[in-house]
Structure to design on (331 residues):
């Protein structure tokens, strides 16, 4: 499998069948798995821990199902009670962190899409002696906000990977579609693309309304006849952009960030030229496992640096292999 990688991170993950978990979501893409269909797995013998995973997930975004699945599998192995909550609004995400503090959890894993809104409550967590790791968003501010490590992709590098690939294939006028204005990771992705392809335009859409995403992108493609590629920053958005290209009668190609089974199939079928995968299952798994390791022996992964889970290019050459894992809900 061909992958683009700029820094190496040693990730050791013991994978075991998933057990039934205690979890609750305010707005996930799907309900938590509650059965034990995978059969009995062997958990560690260390004391039971309670860990909160708090993300900025929006309802219906399947990306977060993959993050959560990784977290659930690590929780099963590590004898962890996983408390999963999410809210795309930063103020409410801060309230969820406070709720976790009040519940006296043994660790907090959190996304930092809008870090300014979370800094005060995260200080309360660290002041209370609760270890914190961050994942997915906010790599650049993670340490300053008290997390001892971060699991995710360097979004600037990911954007540059896309821009480098597009430039090499002759694209000059990309449209980079941001579904949540002010999200530091999404802004960095498009900035990275623009750093390599200066003709890149940014298009902001309302990611909470897929109908609006489709119509806004359609209008942009109709007005910008020189747009030769449109880039979605998440699998559901990219699949919607395919409809916009058709609606606009545009010849623009479609590229993407992130992955799910439908997007992997679209790449395999030649409808999307490639995506950059940040491997979210690893982000969820390693975040929970790192907190367990911290309790187990005071271990701190990363040595003060982020542990990168991407970027990793998925294109026609490797999409069929990745699709096998995507159908299992782990890519």
């Amino acid at each position: 499998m061909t992958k683009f990688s700029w820094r190496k991170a040693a990730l050791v993950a013991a994978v075991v069948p998933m057990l039934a978990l205690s979890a609750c979501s305010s707005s996930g893409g799907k309900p938590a798995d509650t059965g034990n269909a995978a059969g009995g797995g062997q958990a560690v013998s260390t004391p039971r821990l309670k860990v909160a995973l708090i993300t900025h997930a929006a309802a219906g975004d399947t990306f977060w199902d993959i993050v959560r699945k990784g977290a659930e599998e690590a929780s099963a192995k590590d004898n962890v009670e996983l408390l999963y909550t999410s809210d795309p609004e930063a103020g409410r995400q801060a309230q969820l962190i406070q709720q976790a503090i009040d519940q006296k959890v043994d660790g907090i894993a959190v996304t930092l899409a809008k870090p300014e809104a979370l800094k005060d409550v995260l200080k309360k967590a660290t002041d209370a002696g609760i270890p914190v790791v961050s994942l997915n968003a906010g790599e650049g501010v993670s340490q300053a906000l008290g997390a001892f490590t971060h699991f995710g992709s360097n979004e600037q590098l990911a954007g540059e990977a896309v821009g480098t690939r597009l430039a090499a294939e002759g694209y000059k006028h990309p449209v980079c579609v941001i579904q949540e204005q002010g999200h530091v990771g999404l802004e960095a992705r498009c900035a990275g693309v623009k750093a390599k392809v200066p003709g890149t335009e940014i298009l902001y859409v309302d990611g909470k309304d897929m109908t609006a995403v489709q119509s806004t992108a359609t209008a942009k493609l109709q007005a910008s006849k020189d747009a030769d590629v449109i880039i979605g920053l998440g699998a559901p958005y990219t699949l919607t952009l395919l409809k916009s290209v058709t609606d606009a009668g545009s010849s623009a190609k479609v590229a993407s960030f992130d992955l799910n089974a439908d997007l992997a199939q679209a790449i395999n079928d030649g409808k999307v030229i490639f995506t950059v995968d940040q491997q979210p299952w690893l982000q969820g798994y390693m975040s929970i496992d790192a907190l367990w390791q911290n309790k187990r022996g005071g271990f701190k992964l990363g040595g003060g640096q982020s542990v990168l889970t991407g970027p990793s290019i998925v294109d026609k050459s490797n999409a069929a292999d990745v699709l096998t894992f995507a159908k299992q809900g782990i890519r």
Notes: DSSP finds ten helices and twelve strands in the chain. The radius of gyration is 19 Å. Residues 173 and 226 are 7 Å apart (CA to CA). Residues 1-40 have pLDDT under 50 and may be disordered.
